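Why does residue order matter? Because the sequence determines the fold. Keep that principle in mind as you read this record.
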Amino acid sequence: MKKSNKAKFKELKRKEKVEYIWEYYKLHIFAGIFVLIVIGSFLNIWVFNPPPKSAVSVNFVGSSIFADNTESLEKELNPIIVTEEMGNKKVFINTYIFGMKDPQMQMATQTKFIANISARELDVLILDKEQFDSLVLQGSMLPLDQVFSEDELGKLTDRLLKGKSEEDTNEQIYGIDITDNEKIKTVMVGDSDIVIGVVSNTLKIEESKKVIKWFLEME
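Structure:
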């Protein structure tokens, strides 16, 4: 009577069994290990050690930016913005460098910037006056009387910048001149006037206000 494969396997010595399993099932073993690694990575990232979410997004937009210098600003802003109630959140400082020589890179940066505004992923913008005026016209900036009180804006009279979107009937305050700010100068350089403002569709008005007050050293 012919022995079955199961019976033959039982008669093998331990080393022979290992060699047999490896020979016929190594692809299955590799596949199983790969699946376990993927599942483990997923659990680590999304369950045990999820990446921090944004408490507020601060974004430098311009042609001359030292992106490496944003890390120190993040460290200073985090304890000011992030509270225990926020849980796993942090301040994110991003840079969007325009005016690059590579047209494809330039297009990719512009597309990402516009997409992130639409997705409500950007809150505070620090950018040159020309770009600021363009975004105001497009309706992408929030009037600052929706962020600050009248008294608070009164302390910034000389720095306030007005503009008019396509839907505005009158000029409104959309930005604050921050050209001479030493904190800003660590990241942005050049001769352009620099403006700070808030994206029109932000969901984090209070946090954005705290960021601006920190840059301006307002009480």
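Residues 71 and 205 are 23 Å apart (CA to CA).
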